Amino acid sequence: MFDRLQRAHITEARNVADRDVINDLAASIGHDRTEFRTLLRDPETARRVEADRQHAQRFQIRSVPTLIEPMTGTRLVNGPIEDLRVQLDFAAWLAGQRGGAA
């Protein structure tokens, strides 16, 4: 569903904040429209989305994709693979300095 939402938003210029659009997208990839609509309206779904938003806010996530190194919680800056390797090496070194596994 994530990939379908992204494609609709980025390449099809569809309003993925519109629940009817979301339901259409879900149906387009095989989800039952009625069941999906029910789940989308469920307060538990809203709670989970809000928990994800809060988690993203704690890590200062503002774009997708965002990479977080799990040992240190370091947010990596997207870029060429060589830059990511340097950042991962530094995060591993930092984890070792803090007593974590490298």
UniProtKB/TrEMBL annotation:
It holds the Pfam family DSBA. Signal peptide: none annotated. Residues 4-68 form the DSBA-like thioredoxin domain. InterPro entries: DSBA-like_thioredoxin_dom (IPR001853), Thioredoxin-like_sf (IPR036249). This is DsbA family protein.
